[in-house]
Amino acid sequence: MKTLIVEDDFVARQLLKGILSDYSECDIVVDGEEAVQAHRIALEDGEPYDLICMDIMMPNMDGKESLKRIREFEKDNNISGSKEAKVIMITALGDPKTVFESFYKSGATSYLVKPINEEKFFNQLRLFELI
Q: What does the pLDDT look like over 17-53, one tens digit per residue?
């Protein structure tokens, strides 16, 4: 499995990388702009990400806008359905509006609220058939 971790907080990045290290090759970027660029490069190189773990609140470009652009790029390249990257939006905010906008409007596959519960995280990966 190949994963892109998109997180502006150093501790959160290291936590996710540690959780995934036995299962995935992980690339790390610190904001939404870098996420869009990393996703595009991975697709162009023929090595797309299977999983993207993306924080919602980040500088430069937030996770919702970044995911919107990632999904547009996939659509423009005829990537849809099971071939799309699985995207877990990660938020410190569990309010319904944030969840709705991220999960339903932006095209996320799933979402988790911080702090990350490893059992819930791995359950999501199993549902996506990534582990």
A: 999 999 999 999 999 999 999 999 999 999 999 999 9
The CATH code of domain 2-119 reads 3.40.50.2300
pTM across the whole model: 0.92
Domain ranges of the chain: 2-119
Q: Are 66 and 54 in contact (CB under 8 A)?
A: yes
* 39 and 49 Cβ atoms separated by less than 8 Å: yes
Question: Where are the extended beta strands (E) located within the chain?
Answer: 2-6, 25-29, 51-55, 86-91, 110-113
Q: In what order do the strands lie in the sheet with 110-113?
A: 25-29, 2-6, 51-55, 86-91, 110-113
